[in-house]
Design a protein that fits this description.
Elements (H helix, E strand, L loop, with lengths): L5 H19 L3 H14 L3 E9 L26 H5 L18 E8 L8 E7 L5 E5 L11 H9 L4 E5 L6 E5 L9 E2 L7 E4 L10 H21 L5 E7 L1 H12 L6 E5 L11 H17 L7 H8 L16 H21 L5 H4 L6 H4 L5 H7 L10 E6 L11 H11 L7 E6 L19 H17 L7 E3 L22
Parallel strand pairs: 4-5, 4-9, 9-10, 10-11, 11-12, 12-13
Antiparallel strand pairs: 1-2, 2-3, 3-5, 6-8, 7-8
Helix pairs in contact: 2-5, 5-6, 7-8, 7-9
Length: 494
């Protein structure tokens, strides 16, 4: 993370100018469509930006605003273009865009949020198919998080698309000298850079994540009724990582708003182990010794990381080269632990008592961390059809502790009764699509997630049977009669 250079500021200014042009080029009829839509929301939304778009896909530079383009916010608080790349493959490997999608786009702040951070996005294609997709957001990302992975896919099919930011902005840079404050998190154990996450502020309990997924669905339905003269026939939830968690909670608790959902690598939340606070410290603690061993898979450190549920490591070359584990450690392990720990167990002294030595079980008797997790836990009591799609090589949310754990929770909650639930495992898929550019052994999940969405729609609307739980082999696809039903036999395949 660095401050923008003069050249970067010029690029941002140019992009902002394009957006201003898009916002101001509409004629009287265009202004009327946006005026009517904004009027329909009334006082529910604030700081509304609405414009007629020649193309709602990301081929149009006005579709996703530049990073740091919201007035009055510090750098890194609002990062739409960065966010959309976090859950999507690298350029050229993601969603194909085969046509322009004219329509109306509205971005706004949800006025009722006391923190002033909750945001809402709505895209209304002119060729609307009568359906709505509501997207969750991963990490602490903005409402533009799904633009590449989800929006580009569904708006080309005529779906209206809504999204939200879980009611929270991203982060602020607080130090580059290793002098973070008591609520700050360093980017990784070797970094002098500290950041502060907005979701560790007062009033930003993780219980809000469900609240704003539901709020987005309600707002979008109102917007569709005003714009098209009728509400959606069907509404689907989609999301990745923490956004996948939002999907699970949507189909568990709001069957009146959602007809089904697809959760991609959703975060499993339970006060009983496993959870992020039980898993991440083991990786943080053992990685230095693993590196010191020369990345030996036979080292005690490697065995400890595997025992904590993580998939096998991938090595790109000589011992000095990055490995899958070290890449996840540099990007996610400690900083994600810090973010969650400071929200859920704030009395723990993160960098004095230790990140790798955090013991969730020991903390149960001296803190309310269990109650904090219970407040926003996933229950498995789904009330609408749900598909989970997850990769076997996920080294942030290990599959047995997240996707499979949630599947077990669903089956236990329904006590043997049939639940419209499927788990599709992607052999060698991982949490970050872009990592495939570094590790050729990995597989992309995005095309399977989009296919799962189509299968869900066919199931809900036409009664088509969902293919059974299965392992999707490398180079394969979801099958009605899979060669590998159930779980993948190994987390890593050649």
């Amino acid at each position: 993370m660095t401050h923008h250079s003069t050249t970067q500021r010029a690029i941002l200014a140019a992009r902002a100018a394009l957006i201003v042009a898009a916002l101001t080029s509409a004629g009287p009829a265009h202004a009327s469509r946006c005026s009517d839509l904004s009027q329909a929301f009334g006082s529910q939304l604030a700081d509304v930006q609405c414009f007629e778009s020649t193309d709602l896909t990301t081929n149009n530079p006005a579709t996703t605003p530049p990073d740091n383009s919201l007035p009055g916010l510090p750098p890194f608080a609002f990062t739409p273009q960065t966010d959309r790349s976090k859950i999507a493959p690298v350029a050229g490997q993601g969603t194909p865009i085969t046509k322009a999608v004219p329509g109306v786009q509205l971005n706004a702040r949800i006025a009722s949020d006391p923190t002033g951070e909750a945001r809402f996005l709505l895209r209304l294609p002119d060729n609307w198919n009568g359906r709505l997709v509501v997207a969750g957001a991963s990490g602490t990302r903005s409402e533009f998080n799904g633009d590449f992975a989800w929006s580009d896919y569904v708006v080309q099919e005529g779906y209206a698309y809504a999204s939200q930011n879980k009611g929270v902005l991203n982060l602020t840079l607080t130090s580059v000298t290793g002098a973070g404050g008591p609520q700050d998190c360093r980017l990784n154990p070797a970094s002098p850079v500290y950041v502060h996450f907005y979701d560790n502020d007062p009033g930003q309990q993780f219980t809000r994540w469900r609240q704003y997924m539901i709020a987005a669905a309600k707002l979008a339905r109102s917007g569709l009724a005003a714009h098209y003269g009728r509400g959606p026939r069907y509404t689907y939830a989609v999301g990745t990582s923490n956004g996948g968690y939002q999907v699970r909670r949507a189909v568990e608790t709001a069957p009146d708003l959602f007809d089904g959902g697809v959760d991609w690598e959703g975060t499993y939340v339970d006060h009983n182990a496993p959870n992020l606070l039980t898993d991440l410290p083991a990786g943080v603690l053992n990685l230095p010794d693993y590196i010191s061993s020369g990345y030996s898979p036979n080292s005690t450190a490697a065995k400890n990381i595997l025992a904590a549920g993580y998939p096998p490591d991938l090595i790109t070359g000589p011992a000095a080269a990055p490995s899958l584990w070290s890449t996840y450690a540099a990007d996610f392990w400690e900083v994600t632990f810090c973010q969650w720990q400071k929200r859920l167990d704030p009395s723990y002294n993160t960098y004095v008592d230790g990140t790798g030595t955090y013991n969730y079980i020991a903390r149960l008797s001296v803190s309310d961390v269990s109650d904090q997790l219970s407040d926003f836990a996933t229950t498995g009591r789904i009330q609408r059809p749900l598909i989970t799609i997850a990769g076997t090589m996920d080294s942030l949310l290990p599959i047995d502790h997240h996707a499979r754990a949630y599947a077990r929770k669903v089956h236990a909650a329904h006590e043997g009764e049939h639940a419209a639930y499927r788990l599709y495992e992607v052999q060698n898929g991982n949490h970050i699509e872009a990592y495939k550019a570094m590790f050729a052994q990995l597989e992309l999940i995005e095309p399977h997630a989009q296919r799962a969405f189509d299968l869900l729609v066919q199931h809900v609307e036409a009664g088509s049977a969902l293919p059974p739980d299965q392992c999707i082999p490398r180079g394969g696809e979801i099958a009605d009669a899979p060669a590998q039903p159930g779980h993948c036999q190994a987390l890593q395949a050649p």
